[in-house]
User: What shape does this take?
Amino acid sequence: MSALTPASEVMLRHSDEFIERRVLFAGDLQDSCRPNSSRGLRFDHRSRFRRQLRYAGLLLAEEQAEAQFQLCNILALLPVGVDVFVVGENRSGVRSAEPTLEGHVALVKIDSARRCGLYHGRLDAQTEFDLNDWWDSYQLHDLEVKTLPGVFSRDGLDVGSSLLLSTLEKHMKGKVLDIGCGAGVMASVMAKLSPKVKLTLSDVNAAAVESSRATLAANGIEGEVIVSNVYSDITGRFDMIISNPPFHDGLQTSLTAAETLIRGAVKHLPIGASCASSPTPSCHTRTFWTPPSAATSAGAERPLQGVSGPVGRPPRAPKKK
Assistant: This one.
């Protein structure tokens, strides 16, 4: 079984184009593909928005709105005359590349295989990218939610997040970590319910990080927003972890983030703290299964399958007299 995505396999059919060239790999990077003899720099959704780059560009497109956002963002950082290769699955945003770049890059389709298209062109005119042109917002009760393309639940609150929020209590205290914060909806609602909580929000997606910061600012809510791939840049312990983790990697279904979230929670929560998430029941059962003896012992609680559960080290057995 190939470890490369179909888009990467199509791109590698044209490896000669990249020999001894400086190549910028950007967009939906789901593998470590890099053509032989190329000097590559990876620029993915965790990278900062306005980094000055001078590399030949290879853009991997994904969902249409996000693909357009990425194309315009990256091309504004590249010099006129750079070669641009755009590759992606046909069901993603690759077909929108031609009209999106019209007037700046004359793209020509040079290959089609594995249900993917590969386009090539040259940047003929400098483009401009203004982040303010891409903002959208919507109201959720008394909250203003700020969003960018590619951010989860961009157009409104999803069912999973709504279910999770319905389990939260009012007037809680302590440190709360929101993993995969998206536009910062859940953390903002929690702040309204419990103004004394200390919030930390994290996401692997740069657009989500910017959206969460904007949502907090728009509603006068204090909180730290950081870039982290689940727990990769998280330190310390929290009184509660909340998350509606992603179940897709690009266009493919994946439980990796949800399983990593739940398995790693024990390292960041003290005994009796809670991890509230909305994974599938099968994922929760595999990861948070409680032995019958622990679930029925005095003072022990059984996790709520698919919603939340107390985690941390298991309770100590009472000392024998």
